[in-house]
Amino acid sequence: MTSTNLAYFSNGAIYACLIIFTIAFFAHAVEVSWSVKNAESNDKTEFDFTKTQRAGRIGTAMMILGFGVLAVAVVTRGLSAHRVPWGNMYEFSITGALMLTGAYLFAFAKYKVRWLGLPVSISVLLTLGTAITVLYRPSAPLVPALKSPWLAIHVLAAIISGGVFLVANLVAATYLVMERYESKGGRPKWAERIPTLDSLDQLSYRLVAFVFPLWTFAVIAGAIWAESAWGKYWSWDPKETWAFITWVAYAAYLHARVTVGWRGKRAAWLCIFAGSTFLFNYIYVNIWGTGLHTYSGL
């Protein structure tokens, strides 16, 4: 294929992903919502999820298929430009959606968290929809400052970290919702499949603890790259500053868990706060911020 054909193929794969993840979303929604109608019991509030297990399996299959097609879209985007596909916000976004899906599938394989498929599919659809409609830019060469081997090292580490952080945030948000239900007398029947509060608390912590060293490496790699590109390791550029704030916030979360013994609501809120700093950096600073890291192309 020519570079132009590869770029068109990548775009087509993104549109295919929108269809695939939409199917995944509806399948996961059916798994929960139709269980109400399918209940067969004297107790009309009792749920029977066995009748919608097929929908759940279809949702999982679509998430796996979407991950594969999205990986092809990202790779062909890079091949079309003869570089790694992380030169602007569009490319960051589609790769971020890939890593978010991959983080979910990793968590699903290890912890059987199919219930996360619904919020993850929504998040991926929003990311891809925004990318293709608002952030899209034609495939083009890198700006001079990005032409470095550190691009692949630093950005890939940051995107992988972001995907896992966001899954941890979804788990923490789920904890807060379930805790609120339980504090008011008990979960609704549709939420009984979601793990216990303690399990949610532990899963969120494990995900953050797993990926925090990689985020630390990403920040350090960025500093080394900055010295190579601009002659100094740190300039308190807005993106650098917020990357450091995210590091401090997640470090505080882990410290509070390990040394102070924070659990439950306080830990969940701190996790969500840390994740919000990452999202602020990714969305606001990348698009509307000014400084040396303004590569959005918008």
What does this structure look like?
The protein is an all-alpha fold and 298 residues long. It has two domains: 1-141, Four Helix Bundle (Hemerythrin (Met), subunit A), CATH 1.20.120; 143-298, no CATH class. The protein has eight helices and no strands. Helix 1 (3-37) packs antiparallel against helix 4, helix 3 (89-111) crosses helix 5 and helix 6 runs parallel beside helix 8. It is flat and about 60 Å long. The two termini are 28 Å apart. Mean pLDDT is 86; it is low at 37-47.
Short description:
Helix content is 74%, strand content 0%. It has 8 helices and no strands.
Structural class: mainly alpha
Number of strand elements: 0
- Approximately how much beta-strand content do the residues carry? under 5%
Morphology call: flat
Helix-strand topology string: HHHHHHHH
Radius of gyration: 21 Å
Give the fraction of residues assigned to helices.
Answer: over 70%
Note poorly predicted spans: 37-47
Q: Give the total of domains.
A: 2
Number of helices, where a helix is a run of at least 4 consecutive DSSP H or I residues:
8
Distance between the termini: 28 Å
Mean pLDDT: 86
Largest sheet: none
